[in-house]
Structure formats: C-alpha cells, structure tokens
Design goal:
binds nicotinamide-adenine-dinucleotide, 23% strand, Rossmann fold, 342 residues, eight-stranded mixed sheet, alpha/beta, Dihydrodipicolinate Reductase, domain 2, six-stranded parallel sheet
Length: 342
C-alpha cells in the first residue's frame, strides 16, 4: 500500500513514524505533499518518500498512490477528503474530520456516494483500557451509569498559537481547547458510554490566550440513558495534565488517565470485567510533538487491511461526527446562555 501524506507539519511526523513501524506489513510512505515546497522536500528527505508534490491535486492524479493521509489544517479536511474520494483514493483523515456538522455531513455524503474507504483518526479509541471500558458498559457491568466525565486539561502557550496562522481561528481550527485538543477526549468518553446526548449546557471562554476561540470550557451533558457527563477542557492549565476519564455507576467505577488505571472497582468481584493493561502512553498534554504513535499505527494498519479485504475501516466518518456536533452545541449554548437539544 502506497501512502501519501498531504500536509507535512507536526502530526505528519507521527504518520511517518507509524508507517515506518508498518513497513514489514507492506505499508510504504511513498509521497509527501505540502503547499510550502521546502516542507515537502525536507519531510520527504527525512522519511524517505519517493515522490514530492506541492499541490494535492497531483497526489490524487498519481495512480501509484493508494491511500492519502490528510494532515492539513482542520477546516480544509473536507475539501481534500471529498476530492480524494472522487479520485478513487482511500483516506486517512486527522481529527477533527471537519469543523462543523454541516461540513461533516457533506463529506459523509460524498463517501457514501463514492464508496471510498475513509479512516478518521481518534487514536485514543485504540487504547486497551478504552476498549475494555466500552465493552464493560455494553455488558452492563456498571449498572446504571450516574456520572461520567472527561478532564481535558492541556497547556498550549501563546507561541503554539502563533506557530501557524490557522491555529486558534474559527475559520480553520473551528474552535480552540475543545475543537482542537478536547475533541479526542470528548469522542472517547461518548464512545465508551455508547450513549446519546439529549441536551447540554456549556460555557466556553477565552481567559488568557490572545485568540478569538476558547482556551477554557466546561459542559454538562444530559445523557438519554439518564446519567450526566461532565466535560472540562482548556489549553491554559500549566504544565498540561494527562487527560482523565471517569465512569461511575451503581455497580462499578473506572477512572483512568494517560498514565494508567486509577480505579477499576466493581461491586461483584466474581463477575467483574478483567482489568486490562493500560497500554501505550498517549502523551501530548503539554507538547503536541510528544504525541505517541501507538494509535496511529493501529489505525493506519487497519485502513490498509480494510482496503485489502474490502471491508469498512475501524472509524468511518459516520462514527467521527458526534464529538464535533457536541462541541458546536457547547459553543451555541455558551453564546446563547441556553441549553441545547441534540
Ligand atoms: N491526532 C492528533 O493527536 C493530532 C495532533 C496534532 C494535530 N492533529 C490534526 O492534524 C491537522 C494538522 O495539524 P498540525 O498541527 O500538523 O498542523 P501544521 O500547521 O503543523 O501542519 C499543517 C501543514 O499543512 C500544510 N498545508 C496547508 N494547506 C495545505 C494544502 N492545501 N495542501 C498541502 N499542504 C497544506 C501546511 O503548509 C503545513 O505544513 C489538524 O487537523 C490537527 O487537528 C492531530
């Protein structure tokens, strides 16, 4: 499988590391594309890509490319994903898949029309503990879940926001602490709960960074199944903290963060689900260049297998839409001062 990376910035390095790990499984970093030629050239030289492009249309026109990894600013994911699907390429799209529910629906429409294979990156879903919690919820081990939550306290200084013109803008980042960083944890807690959000109330503010989007936010989500899910997210908590997830039910509690499992307790120990290995570290709380590559390895391997075996990938676009819907609803609630029904 020949992969081409579109957008040779920060996260493209994680894709390169993942493809290196998958070399023996037949995955090749074949092409590198960036609108800044020096970035494409340097990336291709460092990671051994055979072909360099400065315009993504040339990537899509190259019959040797099987899979494109869309690693450009978030608000331009949709344009490239739609063009790639129409060109017959399989797609890996970085998070968030797009920045509004409308733009996401547009991409899903084209994917359904073209039957293109598309993998959305939410690497935390590959963590063994997250998979085990989702399974435990499904099997009813928690009983009725009363309270769940995600503490998503990152640190990104002003230099981070100044490092690329699109960061912290409504047009291309789609938001701040929630849409860029928090989207990982919001996706994960909702995926583990497997529940639907009925209504939510949120508050999103810019407390200390010089950006138009939020650097600090919190929301209370009323779940259809009855419980409450609390989200806290920011990019202003020095020095940046491991994202922490809580699931409390009448028959069990699990609390874990990026370092490991803090609580794994069930009322009936004889039927309790097996405590899993916490798995690889996720990283990136204080520095986006320190993001681990475990989840990317899993998801890139999975799309290659999905293409080979003609099956759906692990995280198709229909599955990646909810977190962005919830985040946009939090923004709306914050703007209007009213709860929002989903
Ligand atoms: N999964 C994760 O943990 C994770 C971490 C960081 C970033 N991301 C996501 O990855 C995406 C990129 O973020 P980043 O931090 O790497 O950004 P970045 O600014 O470091 O890199 C983006 C690159 O895309 C290039 N580019 C812009 N428009 C292009 C186009 N039309 N064609 C080709 N190249 C183009 C830019 O020149 C730049 O080099 C974002 O959507 C972000 O949310 C995901």
């Amino acid at each position: 499988m020949n992969f081409a990376i579109i957008g040779c910035g920060v996260i493209a390095f994680t894709h390169a590391k993942a493809l290196k790990a998958l070399k023996d499984e037949g995955c090749t970093l074949y092409g590198a594309c960036d609108i800044i030629p020096e970035k494409a050239d340097a990336y291709a030289a460092e990671h051994g890509a055979q072909r360099v492009y400065y315009d993504y249309h040339d990537v899509l026109a190259d019959p040797a490319v099987d899979i494109v990894c869309v690693c450009v600013p978030s608000g331009t994911h949709g344009e490239i994903c739609k063009a790639a699907a129409k060109a017959g390429k399989a797609i890996v799209c970085e998070k968030p898949m797009e920045i509004t529910p409308e733009k996401i629906a547009d991409v899903i429409g084209v994917i359904e029309q073209t039957h293109a294979k598309m993998q959305c990156i939410f690497q935390r879903r590959m963590m063994p503990v997250a998979i085990a919690v989702r399974q435990a919820v499904r099997e009813g081990h928690f009983g009725k879940i009363c309270l769940a939550g995600a503490d998503l306290k990152y640190y990104r200084d002003q230099a981070y926001y100044n490092s690329a013109g699109w960061r912290g803008t409504w047009e291309l980042d789609g938001g701040g602490a929630l849409m860029n960083q928090g989207v990982h944890g919001i996706d994960l807690i909702l995926w583990m709960l497997g529940g639907e959000v009925e209504t939510l109330s949120g508050s999103a503010k810019t407390v200390s960074r010089h950006i138009p989007v939020e650097d600090t936010a919190a929301a209370v989500l009323n779940m259809k199944q009855g419980g409450i899910c609390v989200i806290q997210g920011c990019t202003t908590a020095y020095p940046g903290f491991s994202s922490t997830f809580y699931i409390h039910g009448e028959k069990g509690t699990v609390v874990f963060n990026d370092e490991g499992i803090l609580e794994w307790r069930f009322l009936d120990e004889s039927t309790a689900p097996v405590r899993p290995d916490a798995g690889e570290r996720v990283g990136g709380a204080g520095d986006p260049t320190k993001i681990g590559d475990y989840g990317h390895i899993c998801l890139l391997r999975d799309i290659a297998e999905a293409v080979r075996d003609d099956r759906a990938p692990a995280i198709p676009p229909q599955e990646a839409a909810l977190a962005v819907r919830v985040i946009c609803a939090i923004y709306e609630s914050s703007r209007t001062g009213r709860p929002v029904a989903l």
